[in-house]
Structures are given as structure tokens and as C-alpha cells.
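Complex 448.
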Amino acid sequence: MFEALNERLTGVFDRITGRGALSEKDVEEALREVRVALLEADVALPVVKDFIARAKTAATGEDVIRAVKPADQVIKIVYDGLVDMLGGEEPVPLNTNATPPAVVLMAGLQGSGKTTTSAKLALRLSKFDKKKVMMASLDTRRPAAMEQLATLGQQIEVATLPIVAGESAVQITRRALQSAKLQGFDVLILDTAGRITLDEGLMNEVAEVAQIAKPVETLLVADSLTGQDAVRTAAAFHERLPLTGLVLTRADGDGRGGAMLSMRAVTGLPIKYLGAGEKVDALDVFDARRVAGRILGQGDIVALVEKAAGELDQAKAEKMARKLAKGQFDLDDLAGQLNQMKKMGGLQGIMGLLPGVAKLKNQMAENNVSDKMIDRQLAVINSMTKAERKKPDLLNASRKKRVAKGAGVEVQDINRLLKQHRQMADMVKSLSKGGGKNLQKMASMMGG
Ligand code: GDP
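Predicted structure with guanosine-5'-diphosphate bound:
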């Protein structure tokens, strides 16, 4: 998978690598080629558009690191965009911590790999997580499917619910729940019936089973080789069933990769596992960074740029610390803080890192600082002149009016921002009197 895409992207990067400087036009040209490559890989158009827009912003933004070759920077931007497209940096673990039995409901079309994936998951949970797992097939119309699950269960030494002919899916669900509870199973995997195509009867049945079984995880299994069809299937299931995650099978196949790259953005659901073969142990925990790395094949460069970015942040943080230690904090510093907050996943992210700075947190809460407001505040600061940013006292009524107009906000928004800045500046001053140690620590955490 991703071979063609990898080849195309490598070509794009080869063309810009080796050039000293890149003009804005060069970057745009490269991104245009990346766009074509993604579309050819069958990535959904809105997803591609969003990706390119973000990449452009990143490439022309203020976070450009001068210590790194421009082409390397473009590679890193594309890498970051892919990680983002695939759902972020951290794999999302499967939740099995419910009152036993934690029910995992498997849904999907027939042939998607649902039964095989149920067994793969059962093996992983029993072998690695030491859970006591039971599986049950709800495919009442295809006795072969029930037997297939039983055979797989024997093979991986995981219990399956004994097959009773003539029961409905709902009856089997009730029996499975009771049996798993009585026998002390931690996890119950329900392998629902699949059809060749989406149909109403199937959806109703799965929805009813879900209501009874109250699964902690409802996973949709989709065949990555079917491209955008897999994405549409996932979206259609998600309309009827509160899915919690996706499993993409046949990642070992030679698909173009469009399904995997579009799934997350289109459905909003995390990809949790990849099926990577027919064997029962061929199930990988989905890792966006690893997949993005595989698509680009530029691991060294990504690592290099990450290191340079880290050093730059460190240098900025140290500079910030020196300023703070002197009790200085102007509106440019505030803008730096706001940008840093955005980078670190918004206010919640940064506050999580600053357990000791409750005062700041409260102050911000008082002032109604929400993540959405950060952009507005930055717009206000950007509408000021350099002198105004250094010396906010310059902002008299007419200047405030001008800034408000420029940023598309009201004068009272300017006043609110100035008040917030004043409070922060005061705090910086009082902290700096109390010794630079705390400040140094705070600044290095917040960057600047
Ligand atoms: P179900 O109808 O959705 O339950 O599909 P099955 O689990 O019976 O799988 C259909 C076929 O796909 C079987 O031959 C599986 O061995 C195969 N299969 C399932 N997952 C994968 C995978 O990740 N990679 C490959 N290569 N084959 C798979």
C-alpha cells in the first residue's frame, strides 16, 4: 500500500531538494504536485483541499525554522499534515475497562474481514492484555460464518458461545451476555452479520443488538482496498450506529491508500487497528506517525526538523525567560504566548502542563479566554503597529477604533485584551520580584 503515493511524493521532494532557497512559487508548485499525488491515491477531495490549505499556511507562517533547509521543511510540513489527516500523534487504545463483560461490537459488510478481525482482536486481548475473552457470532443467516468463528476460536484458544440453531441475533446477544457474565469473561466480542451491500434490515438488526449489548466499543471493519466505497460505508454505518472506531483490513494489499487517508477526516472516527494479513496475528495497532513515515519514507529528515524545531523553541523560551525575569511582558510577548498555546493544543493542553500556575488559569477563566478567542486576540494584536505592541499605553480611543476595525472586532474586545495583558504583565512583575526560578520554569514550558 502507498507505493505509488510514496513514489510520487519522493519525486516532488527530489525536485526541490538541493535548491538553496525556495520561493513562495516553488513551495506552491510543490504543494500542487502533492495535491495531485493525493488525489491520485484516491483521497477524498475535501480532505485534500483542507490538507493543502493547512500546508500552505504552515509553509508561509511564522514558525519557519531558519536553521533547516527549506525543502526539508516542506517535507516536515507534508509529514505533519499526513499525521493530522490520519488522526493525530497518539494511537487511541481500545477501551475494555467496563463492568465485565466489556462488549466489543464488530460491524461491517460481508467480506470486509469482520470475522477474521474479531479473532485477531480476541487473540490480542487474551495474549497481550491477559483478558478472558469470549466471542459470539450473530450471523444467523450464514451458518458457515458461525462455524468459521468457532474454528478460529479453537485455533487461538479463545472461547466461543456454543451455536444454537434457530435463534435470532437478539436472542444470541442476550445468551452471550448472560453466559459471559456468569462465566466471568472480561470481554465479549460480538461478530454481527454482514451483507454484501448496505441494507436497511441489516442496519436495524445491528442497531437493535447495540441497544441490548451496550458495547463500550463499536468497531466498523472496512476493506481498505475498496477505497472511497469503504469511506461511504463507514459514514453510512456511523449514521445508524454510534461507532467508536475503525479497523481497516487488507492494509497488506496493494491499495492506493485513499481509504486510510480519508477515513478519519470524513467520519471523524479514529482508526484503531490495521489488518495486515490473513493470519490471526496480523493485526497492528494503528499509529498515524508510523503510517505517515511509511508514506513519505523520509524519517531522517522529519527527525532532523523536529530536533531543530525543539532547539528553536528552547532558544525562544530562554529569551522569554530573560525578559520575564526583568518583569517585561509586552503585547508581542502575549502574541507569542497565544501562538504557542495554539501549537500545543489550545488552552487545555498548555494548562495541563502548568499545574502550579493556578492563578494564571483562574485569571484567564475570569477573562473568558477560550480557545476560540485566541485567534481573535491574535487578530487584534496583529492589527496594531509595532510601537503599540511594545507600548500598549499608546492606544488611545481613536487608535483603538482603528485596531478594532482592522481586526473586525469591537472596541470593547480591545479593552478586554488590554486588561488581560495588564494582569499578566503585573503577574510577571510580581513573580519576577519573587525570584527568577519559577519564571524560568514557566517560560520554558510555555515557550515563547
Ligand atoms: P467477513 O465476511 O467480514 O467476516 O470476512 P472474513 O473475516 O471472512 O474475511 C474475508 C477474507 O478476507 C478471508 O479470506 C480473510 O482471510 C481475508 N482477510 C481478512 N482480513 C484480512 C487482511 O487484513 N489482509 C488480508 N490479506 N486478508 C484478510
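Residues 352-356 have pLDDT under 50 and may be disordered.
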